[in-house]
Write a structure and sequence with these properties.
The chain is mostly helical. It is built from 15 helices and no strands.
């Protein structure tokens, strides 16, 4: 049994807290399209996703090993460094959740770890080749690959079913969506739960509890799986709304194509040990599915805000992680001060979120404006048969009817 110090116990609890935020922050990755198209009721969807996240946590440890053995020099890391890294990751997750932006929990964690490590041991303690090949390149490639795959799959789906009965086709794709959503949830557990496993394993090595180079102990795998599953069941409804309704208006064919493409990319990355952002993969696939349907549109104002959040994730979490590490380096009272700051900041963000509550009852409501580009495209591009009224109603506001008050109603044209 591992020998625990107080600081090591604090790090493990904080890591599981991050895993919980990762769960509710990334619920949208698996279930946003399924909820937005009506394939599953919101509460049923998050319960299903939570169970499969837990199962997925046991399927592999390749990504966990990338974090615990490859990204930073584990021999020069103290448990306080891991704690500081988690502070940066948790605060970024909560801030982006508050504004409903699907940013990457993975990059928040890695950014916090990189910033805290540099503040503690210098730039030489970060393995730049691993950072580039297994973090940065997948971050760029994942949304592009998933987006192109989803766009092609969407076009193929509509082409295949153009002569079929519309209602029967939609029912069939809703059933397919449920299966593909389950696959994304399984893939998310396989990839994202492992990141917390890796960070806890790194902390155990840093604290001398287990030998360098060790795989995650079984209790670490189980606790990380349970934490992310619980967070998933809570449901990050703000981000589900953005992913399901804020990026584009999805039909069942598009939802199925987006989820299948994203799951394929995530599972392949997990097998290769890439610390992939599931958020990037799913967001790219949703945008690709939106562009793949004739008459479909993407709300580029939302996409722009999301891209800005993606670009800021690594440096912002790294900065907070570095500052937190500088304070924890002052001693036990510095660590206590950082812990109090984390708790107080988290409570303040939660209180701000109560001003405008988003939950399972209103998750499919959206007041996102269509925008000039979206309205223009929808006006000149004919949508598929059977969806004209629905698509135009969703994207072009009806013109106001103006009548002459002097004209009797019976004579009005």
């Amino acid at each position: 049994m591992e020998n625990f110090s107080l600081i090591l116990a604090i790090v493990v609890v904080t890591a599981l807290a991050f895993d919980f935020t990762n769960g509710f922050h990334d619920t949208a990755n698996a279930m946003a399209t399924t909820i937005s198209t009506g394939a599953l009721k919101p509460k049923v969807a998050v319960a299903m996703s939570a169970a499969l996240n837990l199962v997925g946590a046991f399927l592999s440890v390749e990504v966990a090993n990338t974090i615990s053995k490859g990204l930073v020099d584990e021999t020069g890391i103290r448990p306080e460094v891991i704690f500081a890294a988690l502070v940066g990751a948790i605060l970024w997750n909560l801030l982006t959740w508050l504004v409903g932006l699907p940013s990457s929990s993975s990059h928040a964690l890695l950014g916090g770890l990189i910033g805290a490590t540099i503040a503690s041991a210098g730039t030489g303690a970060v393995h730049g080749d691993v950072l580039v090949t297994k973090v940065l390149l997948p971050a760029v490639a994942a949304p592009i690959v998933a987006g192109v795959a989803a766009m092609l799959a969407t076009r193929f789906s509509y082409g295949l079913g153009k002569d079929a009965d519309g209602e029967a086709t939609r029912k069939g794709y809703r059933a397919g969506q449920i299966a593909s959503a389950g696959l994304v949830s399984l893939a998310h557990g396989t990839n994202d739960a492992q990141k917390t496993m890796g960070i806890i394993t790194l902390a155990l090595i840093a604290g001398g509890a287990i030998a360098p180079g060790s795989n995650p102990p079984t209790w670490v795998i189980l606790s990380a799986g349970l934490a992310i599953a619980l967070g998933t069941y809570i449901g990050g409804w703000r981000i589900i709304r953005t992913m399901g309704k804020g990026l584009t208006d999805l039909q069942p064919q598009q939802g199925f194509s987006a989820q299948t493409s994203a799951a394929t990319v995530i599972l392949a990355s997990s097998h290769l040990g890439f610390s992939l952002s599931t958020t990037h993969a799913v967001s790219g696939s949703v945008m690709g599915a939106g562009l793949g349907r004739k008459g479909g549109v993407v709300r580029w104002s939302t996409v722009t805000r999301m891209f800005v959040a993606w670009a800021l994730t690594l440096p912002a979490a790294a900065l907070v992680g570095a500052l937190a590490e500088s304070v924890t380096g002052l001693g036990d009272w510095g660590t206590a001060l950082v812990a109090v700051f984390l708790i107080a900041s988290s409570a303040a963000i939660w209180k701000l979120s109560r001003r405008q509550v988003v939950d399972h009852s209103n998750v499919n409501d959206t007041d996102e404006p269509a925008g000039v580009v979206t309205t223009a495209i929808a006006a000149v591009t004919p949508p598929p048969a059977g969806t004209v009224a629905e698509d135009l109603t969703a994207t072009i506001p009806a013109p106001a009817t103006v009548t002459d008050p002097a004209t009797p109603p019976a004579a009005a044209v």
